[in-house]
Please model this.
Amino acid sequence: QVQLVQSGGGLAQPGGSLRLSCAASGFTFSSYWMKWVRQAPGRGPEWVSDINPAGGSTRYVDSVKGRFTISGNNGRNTMYLQIDSLEPGSTALYYCARGRPTGGTGGYDLWGQGTRDAVSA
Model:
């Protein structure tokens, strides 16, 4: 079955860390760009980061550079997002998504179920 299953996240303290996981199945994980997207309450979706699992290339939205780290494990078909220095009161739903195939077009055709990250004020 082609799917993305997320885990991790939850409630954390300011300054702490959270780690999100996104396990892929049913397709060749390393053949696609893989993405993290978040949505804060009352705001639209925001692309956060992506990775090319085959080559290891990564990209981040400017607002998270230095605090977020995206990584992938091709053997486990799993992508991770490490979030450090959590900001007080920050809450968002985080989704992983499949991007375009390497060298191809399209993307955002497969999504994880979402996980909520909340940081106490």
User: Anything to note?
Assistant: The two ends are 40 Å apart (CA to CA). Strands lie at 3-8, 10-12, 18-25, 32-39, 46-51, 58-60, 68-73, 78-83, 91-101, 115-119. The chain has a mean pLDDT of 93. The CA atoms of residues 33 and 63 lie 21 Å apart.
